[in-house]
Amino acid sequence: MALGVLAVVAAVLVAIGAFGGDSLPERTGPPIEDLRVEKTVLEPGEIELTVRNAGPDEARVAQVLVNDAYVNFTGASEPLARLETETLTIEYPWVEDSPYEIGMLTSTGTVIPHTIAAAVETPESGGDFLLSMILIGLYVGVIPVTLGMLALPVLRRGGRRWTSTLIAFTVGLLGFLAIDGTLEALDLSALGSGVFGGDALVFLSAGLAFLLLSAIDSWMKGRRRRSADKGASSWQLALMVAIGIGLHNFGEGLAIGSAYSVGELALGTTLIVGFAIHNTTEGLAIVAPLASEKPRARALLGLGLIAGGPAVIGALVGGSVSSDELAAALIGIGVGAILQVVVQLVPAMKDEAGRLLTPVSSAAVAAGALSLYLTGLLVTA
Fold first, then answer.
1. For a tag on the chain, would you pick the N or C end, based on fewer CB atoms within 10 A?
2. Closest CA to 307 of 289, 286, 291
3. Residue 300, phi then psi, degrees to nearest 5
4. β-pair partners for 90
5. CA separation (Å) from 16 to 8, 12, 24, 127?
6. pTM flag (> 0.85)
7. Which domains does the chain have, with CATH numbers?
């Protein structure tokens, strides 16, 4: 019966979408033209604009003006349908650090403006940039996870109070990072075209990432419990933990790489610091099932690569993003990953009496947030 109801609902919606438009009167008035610039590339003697049609009607760029003067350009020879993109190559001897006002004159006479605040040649994403993204992934993923695994004996001697204080410090870091990342993502979204939702896309990305990672974490925990009940080895349990952490670190790498790709250096640095400190605690989670084992260094390194290596892939993918709106969505994914981690860490802040916010834990949370705030002040974007 449920499937039958769903089939009827789907059939009605499809019929409305296919034939409903024919029953509406024709829209009168001039066409609605809404062209938006998603990407600007400056090369010597040329300005490239990637334009997307965000309006409901077709639109075509007939002429281009730069500082109120008509210039030669190529591209956009055919009308753009809704959501289609085209690259306009404008021949213009621009001068470095000078501002420019570009006007795109459509075939109906509408002028759509675009501002370049200060002209600077667009850097190429060469080998140096890719190497930087690889190093960032190593700094955030592999190295801190491995260090956390090596620090297990030291933290054991410190006792539960020391461990809960460190976790509270991490919660402060990540809580501030979630707020800062959300604000930066909204700022980036405002610079984008807004075709795919703007601010709503940021919150949607964060929400979906949170739900997906929560589901994966629950599934992995269930598998670990079932494996433990069946007598699985400690190495199997440690491997499952490493895989779950690796999925988190991929989202973290996406957020950091996309922040750097659009020039948000301060945000990129705070993301690196916050995730690196957090991932050190993740290393402890990996080796916890191996407490009674005597693992070899090569085996621990393998687990560290499984858990931290996805951060390198995520940084490479995020670093190749050139759209402000897409970068904002990727940072939203990182925010969702942060919030999911905070939800996991908060219960571990409790002391022996089960209290969550004690004077020590409260001071640790505040110290974590303040340390990232000061880090952001030291780095200029």
1. N
2. 286
3. -65, -40
4. 47, 73
5. 12, 6, 11, 52
6. no
7. 35-116 (2.60.40.10), 127-378 (no CATH)
Residue 263's pLDDT is what? Answer: 59
Greater confidence, 337 or 193? 337
Q: Match 């591209």 to its residue by tokens.
A: 75
In angstroms, the CA 370 to CA 361 distance is 14
Cα–Cα distance measured from residue 29 to residue 33, given in angstroms and rounded to the nearest whole number? 12
**H-helix or E-strand containing 111?**
strand 111-116
Classify the phi-psi angles of 101: left when phi > 0, otherwise alpha if psi is within -120 to 50, otherwise beta: beta
Q: Which amino acid is at 67?
A: N
Coil vs helix vs strand at 102? strand
On whether the CB atoms of residues 252 and 269 are closer than 8 A, the answer is no
Q: Is residue 304 within 8 Å of 279, Cβ to Cβ?
A: no
CA-nearest of 94, 99, 96, 93 to 114 is 99
What's the length of the chain? Answer: 381
Q: Which of 251-260, 315-324, 370-379 has the lowest mean pLDDT?
A: 370-379
CA distance 265 to 197: 25
| DSSP of 264-330 | -HHHHHHHHHHHHHHHHHHHHHHHGGGTTS---HHHHHHHHHHHHHHHHHHHHHHHT---HHHHHHH
CB-facing half-sphere around the CA of 130: CA atoms within 13 A = 5
pLDDT at 130: 79
User: Stretch 123-132: mean pLDDT, rounded?
Assistant: 72
Name the residue among 162, 195, 53 with its Cα closest to residue 112. Answer: 53
Neighbour count for residue 226 (Cβ, 10 Å):
10
Contact between 276 and 140 (Cβ < 8 Å)? yes
